[in-house]
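Lecture notes, structural biology module. Today: joint structure prediction for complexes of two components.
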Amino acid sequence: MDAQPRRVASPDQRFLGILDTSPFRVAIVYSIVFACGAALLLGIVDFAVSRVVDRSSDDLIDAEVQGLREQVLVLSRSDFIELVEQRSQDQDVRGAVYLMVDPQLRPVAGNVPAWPKADSDDGKWIQFKAAVPFGEEMRDHEMRARRFKLPGGYNMLVGHDVQERQDVKNLMMRGLIAAVALTLLLGLGGGFWMGRRILAQAGAISAVATQIMSGDLSQRLPVRDADDEINTLAREINTMLDRIEQLTLGMRTVLDSAAHDLRTPLNRLQATAEGAMGQVTAGSPERRVLERVTTEVDHMRATLDALLRIALAETGTVAREPVDLSELVASMVELYAPVSEERGIQLESAVASGAQVQGSRQLLAQALANLLDNAIKFTPDGGHIRVLLKSQSAGPPSAGLRPAGPEVIVEDDGPGIPADKRELVLGRRVRLDGARNVPGSGLGLSLVAAVTKLHGARLTLDDAAPGLRVSLQF
Amino acid sequence: MHILIVEDDEVARDYLAKALREVGHTVDVAGDGLAGLHMASSIAIDVAIVDRMLPKLDGLALVQSLRATGRKLPVLILSALGEVDDRITGLRAGGDDYLTKPYHVAELLARLDALARRGESGNAETHTKLKLADLELDRMTRRVERRGKKIELTAREFQLLEFMMRHSGQVVTRTMLLEGVWDYHFDPQTNVIDVHISRLRQAIDKGFDKPLLHTVRGAGYSLREDE
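The predicted structure, tokenised, for the full assembly:
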């Protein structure tokens, strides 16, 4: 489990998340480039082909026009009509169209049923539609033709059925559009799929990374059976984690043996002193010496415990569990209430319910105890101590993207800590001059700092005007 | 009480054995884990004190093997490690209590006593009514009476009294109270427990000629009927 309630992504958010991934963006850019490229290429091909085909068929028509112009000069009208009819029937030249009309534009010869409405000047190219037989039925075909005048007010039209070419062109255009659409679609689809894959993997990696950061060093990043960049990176990070885990375990072992090597002689000293105490009469000078020895052992033990806890918290290897912070703060206040009351100190508290963090209950309790011990120690008789637990801090989250967690505040109206010394007291074994005559190891705030850091929280010391205000922002 | 000490540190072991014998216990000692396991499984022992770091067989492994054979013998683990979550691993391995070195003999004795009695009166935990002299505590109705007169207690005072009554006649140390009633494992610098006890004392002993809650010098407190 995580310290913060894991934000559950709604389907909408997940969808938008995919649109934000780099593969999806790359896919969009590539699809657009490919689509433009395809469009340009097909456009050029279409242009080139129609130029070539148009030019050659136009040349053919020009040649035919030239031929007929020469013929009309030498042939009689009826022979010319015969010739036109013959050419019209000639199936060798597929798609060739002829029409000869009299001055009233009535067809005289040819294979076009009527003179096109779109009229034009002599010698110009015209484009028109004409019905042509297509099997049983008639179909309107696109024609391209040149007209020219014949003697006696007759007009002649020589052209070509360009419907087929038009069909091919249309087909190409449709193909082109389909190709562009398909490219875009496939590109977006592929990008979406890749984005989702990356997002899933990145999500898994960041989930594991969060666990690792919260102290579970045994976790490893998920690696797929592939040699892509992410997997290579994940493998390398895992190797790095192996090393970090080894180092941390090594540190823990060093700490444990240091603890063992210090606790064992202290234990002997304690046992020896306590054993000897039984041999001497109560109240004798020897007895008093032995009592001082055991008191000093107690102090050394307290200091050793504090140092070891700080060191342990700093290795970050302490086991974590969900901690009911509300219960913890309330019970610590309850634990310290009688003691402060005895000193005439008012211990006030406002504890929000339902605040949970991930961490070590014992270390958090120790940290809170240290803060309360300090507050009671430094608050004059008749003073005030306030303990607050806010489940969610008001205002904008200060630590970047992380949503602000619960905040514990301990305030007193004691002497406080001067602003320039606040950083200093968080370091190890710093006791301000005014505190020399107060018992304590001087490690209290260092332990609070280490525990706060272990829990990913922020510790701030402020002026409570008067007094000290300590805030633990999770 | 028959106590087994499994400890490799000779000086500490001898002093401990001597201290335990002085208060009337029968003591057997073992210097390593294997010998300790052998003795724990073959001799009738009431409580075992097992050091965590032992030659031949580690203290935790010893407790685990003991539990694996179904032996219910109460075990107190002594540790010289860094603590914090070592305690949890120790208790998970099958230890019944956990004490970090250096310790006071008084603390150890109180804990041993509690462990041994827990074995004896295992069903005391399930009794609804606890009784000591004219003091009665009903766990169901959460009602406390002395000589038939109702005593008003806060929830925590009730818990504290319940704990003391379950260990009546025994010495209960401050750390035992902090662990048993508050579930905290640290030594507070201020005398927080003492003030709680003095409030409880006010509530149950004030106005009665025979006090039940006694301070045991250098050790802790004891709830008992004085003869």
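Point to remember: Chain B has two domains: 2-120, 124-223.
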